[in-house]
Structures are given as C-alpha cells and as structure tokens.
Write a structure and sequence with these properties.
Blueprint (H helix, E strand, L loop, with lengths): L2 H19 L2 H8 L3 H14 L20 H13 L5 H10 L6
Helix pairs in contact: 1-2
Length: about 100
Amino acid sequence: MTTQEKLIRNKLSLLELAEYLKNVSEVCKVNGVSRQHFCDIKKAYEENGLDGLRQKSHRKPCMTNRVAPEIEEAVVRMAYKYPAYGQARAANELKKQGILVS
C-alpha cells in the first residue's frame, strides 16, 4: 500500500467515524485534527469523491531553466544511443554537432 493510499484511507476512516458517532467535535478530538481540517476533508470528498482525498502538491513547476525541445530531444537521443557516455563526453559530442549544452 502506497503512502497516498494510506492517507486516503485515514481521511476516509475519519469521515466514517463522524458518520457513526454523529459528533464532529468528538471525532476531531479523538483523531487530533482541527474542525477546519475535518470540514476541508468532508468538502473535498463531497465534491470529488476519493480523488478529492488525494494529497495535492502545492509546488509550482520551475520552467525557467528549461532548454529548447530540440536540444532536449538531442540529449535524450544521445543518452539512448550511447549510454556509457558521461555528461562531459555527451556535451562535447553534441557540441561537435552544433548543439550547445552546458
């Protein structure tokens, strides 16, 4: 069982316990979560089902250091064709072809 599945199972058990006890305060106290967190979980489950309980990354992708797709494709091709080449050798071979990679 993956970590994601364990988190979903824990959130789902929290909701099931609340349904059984009919007392949100008691459920939150027993499980050590805030009422706000419980309400967020409940809302996510009602809106999206089990997918709403998945942990979502709030990290923004960093695209500033991306290279052009042609250069990326050339590097990947080189890596598949010559897997024994290191970073320096692959960069030198690509430089011979007119592709600059640092």
